[in-house]
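Blackboard transcription, Thursday session:
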Amino acid sequence: NAGVMQNPRHLVRRRGQEARLRCSPMKGHSHVYWYRQLPEEGLKFMVYLQKENIIDESGMPKERFSAEFPKEGPSILRIQQVVRGDSAAYFCASSPTTTGGNYGYTFGSGTRLTVV
Amino acid sequence: KQEVTQIPAALSVPEGENLVLNCSFTDSAIYNLQWFRQDPGKGLTSLLLIQSSQREQTSGRLNASLDKSSGRSTLYIAASQPGDSATYLCAAYNNNDMRFGAGTRLTVKP
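(Written on the board underneath:)
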């Protein structure tokens, strides 16, 4: 079991470009969560998705950010027209059940986005 | 809305010392509480998961306790080692939502 896979590990974008971050959950996990970690800060919840559905996007900025988890393929976090303030580490976690159940969350290694 | 606080924000101890990291949460209706370790520039490694019905979990030199009624959890590290140096995060899980504290940055000096 390869765990939660995120790619790319590092991503550099110029202001105004688009950033696409990918997350493949653990095998058998159908629940995906995205978090953002700004330098020297804790993790902030962004969005919770199940296959083909957004369950909770209360932590997602209203503009420029979107997320999907299609029936086939990884979950994608998309940031349009990036700005310097988007520079952060973006982490994805997955769980097998709706409550994190007996297993808690498993995190990927993150994607570090740098906007120049 | 759940808020999670970790004290202290940073801690420096000499090797061999036993230490306690504190985590408090405002909403006691949690399903579970999870402790993670994060090394600089790296992802999160799960250390211990405590279900809401449990009071503590142990793994090697680590012991985590949970007191839902007071909204507190502690992570006890015995006989600390320089390799324990990292940021320790606690996270409380409610409905479809895991909230993190800002972490305690631990440095264990040889």
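Lecturer's comment: The longest strand of chain B covers residues 86-94.
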